[in-house]
């Protein structure tokens, strides 16, 4: 489903134009980047994107495999060889059309998805001991071409996902569905349901659409204009967006059903911060990464002046080793921190953040205090944070995740002066008030059937971080697409039984 025809004449001619040996001899493209000395003084996006020539050359590396592992490694099952081979033959708009059949956020995924552990990890090049095709870079190129060169908004995305691009748009069906939350999972669900012809309304509790894409990822990684453009594509497809509406309070779930919505998809994410439970965590000068990033992304550094904390010339420590932690500490560098430290209880090799993000942080002067774990925050005479006490760690036996567990080294505790600590050690689901009958697990996540994404309550489906806990953008989108397919199948099955 959704695959282009590998045996079409143009694909055969393209494969015959070069031997596999010639293709595999081409080195992987290097993404142009802003110089580190310059970029630490600006919020401009670090990665600058591929040129036309770079994109075509990188696309030429793709072997157009008969059973492509890259598609299997992609949570939304993009037709990766299909769009890449269109780039190789310089049919960029067609490459965009191929992508748009399966993803509503190609420009986002091309920037922030961990391709190295998903599609690129399944590329045949890995078995040859060579670097995989730069799938993420090429996805970004195609999406940026759409936005910057053509301004193209895909009318054919109003078709059902398994139809060709030339099929006439499907009209609105007399069935409306509601989406609670406008993050990546909700947007993916909304796009797929609209493609199938359903009326879709997205309700967002905050004043901007995009969820974590707007509030949790800095401009230098994902510019907000990129997110706005992707949402505008959905709006022009016919998806309705309503902000400042807190479902469960502004409207209850029963009221949504009474308003005529026949199905509800809950995609409220995981925004409740997790704390470590150590002394001094409630001191002024200690905050969560969620609070820190939202302030900077939406209000700028001036808000810290309101609270008596300016980052200029200060010592900032971020606790954690994920992508959010890396984003936070790199933001501190850009806001003038005199010392920006990343404190992580395991080693650099165990750090879950993307390798590119780690490299960028090191180039920008971030200090990595690995095998260290905070055990206490100390206050000054005014009651403000002045220092942190770090316990030195060593790696023991692997835990349930397969990573070696950090073990304290007895007596090895170091005190480091610090002005601001940002805690980024995970998040928990923070759902709005839910409908009766929605089952939650002990973590507060909505329990769903993993195949259909349907909850225990009638008409309510759920996906993304509210179901699986904090995860990647692309996994959340995969949940949205799976839920849309399941809900649409349920509607169609019900309609097939109607007799006139």
Unreliable stretches (pLDDT < 50, length at least 5) are 153-169, 303-309
What would you call the structural class?
Answer: alpha/beta
**Distance N to C terminus:** 32 Å
Strands in their spatial order, largest beta sheet = 3-2-1-4-15
Folded structure, characterized:
It is a single chain. By secondary structure, this protein is α/β, with parallel strands linked by helices. It has helices at residues 9-16, 20-24, 36-39, 52-61, 69-73, 80-88, 92-100, 106-112, 135-150, 184-195, 212-215, 224-237, 253-258, 289-299, 302-306, 323-334, 355-363, 465-468, 473-496, and strands spanning 176-180, 199-203, 240-242, 261-266, 272-273, 286-288, 315-319, 339-344, 367-370, 372-379, 385-398, 404-417, 420-423, 427-428, 460-462. A hairpin with a 5-residue loop joins strand 10 and strand 11.
């Amino acid at each position: 489903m959704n695959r282009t025809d590998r045996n079409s004449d143009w694909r055969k001619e393209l494969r015959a134009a070069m031997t596999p040996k010639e293709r595999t001899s081409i080195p992987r493209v290097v993404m142009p980047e802003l110089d580190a000395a310059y970029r630490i003084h600006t919020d401009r996006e670090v990665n600058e994107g591929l040129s036309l020539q770079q994109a075509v050359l990188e696309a030429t590396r793709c072997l157009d495999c008969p059973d492509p592992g890259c598609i299997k490694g992609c949570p939304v099952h993009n037709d990766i060889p299909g769009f890449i081979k269109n780039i190789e033959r310089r049919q960029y708009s067609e490459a965009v059309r191929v992508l748009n059949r399966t993803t509503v956020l190609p420009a986002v995924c091309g920037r922030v998805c961990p391709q190295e552990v998903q599609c690129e990890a399944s590329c045949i090049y890995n078995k040859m001991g060579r670097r995989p095709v730069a799938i993420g870079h090429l996805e970004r190129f195609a999406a940026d071409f759409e936005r910057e060169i053509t301004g193209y908004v895909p009318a054919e995305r109003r078709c059902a996902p398994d139809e060709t691009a030339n099929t006439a748009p499907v009209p609105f069906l007399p069935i409306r569905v509601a989406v609670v939350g406008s993050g990546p999972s909700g947007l993916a669900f909304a796009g797929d349901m609209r493609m199938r012809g359903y009326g879709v309304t997205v309700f967002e509790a905050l004043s901007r659409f995009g969820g974590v894409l707007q509030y949790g990822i800095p401009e230098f990684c994902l510019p907000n204009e990129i997110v706005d453009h992707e949402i505008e594509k959905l709006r022009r497809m016919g998806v309705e967006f309503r902000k400042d509406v807190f479902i469960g309070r502004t409207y209850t779930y029963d009221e949504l059903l009474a308003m005529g919505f026949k199905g509800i998809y809950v995609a409220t994410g995981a925004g409740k911060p997790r704390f470590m439970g150590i002394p001094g965590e409630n001191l002024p000068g200690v905050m969560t990464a969620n609070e820190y990033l939202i302030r900077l992304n939406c209000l700028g550094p001036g808000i810290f002046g309101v609270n008596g904390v300016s980052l200029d010339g200060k010592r900032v420590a971020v606790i954690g080793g994920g992508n959010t932690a890396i984003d936070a500490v790199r933001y501190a560098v850009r806001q003038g921190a005199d010392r920006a430290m990343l404190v992580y209880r395991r080693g650099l090799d165990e750090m879950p953040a993307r390798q590119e993000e780690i490299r960028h942080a090191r180039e920008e002067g971030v200090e990595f205090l690995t095998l260290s774990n905070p055990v206490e925050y100390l206050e000054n005479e005014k009651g403000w944070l002045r220092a942190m006490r770090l316990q030195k760690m060593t790696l023991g036996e692997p835990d349930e995740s397969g990573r070696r567990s950090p073990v304290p080294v007895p007596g090895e505790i170091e005190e480091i002066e610090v002005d601001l600590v940002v805690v980024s050690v995970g998040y928990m689901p923070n759902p709005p008030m839910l409908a009766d009958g929605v089952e939650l697990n002990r973590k507060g996540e909505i329990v769903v059937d993993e195949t259909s994404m349907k909850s225990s309550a009638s008409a309510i489906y759920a996906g993304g971080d509210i179901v699986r806990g904090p995860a990647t953008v692309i996994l959340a989108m995969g949940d949205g697409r799976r839920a849309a397919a399941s809900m649409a199948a349920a509607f169609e099955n019900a309609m097939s039984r109607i007799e006139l």
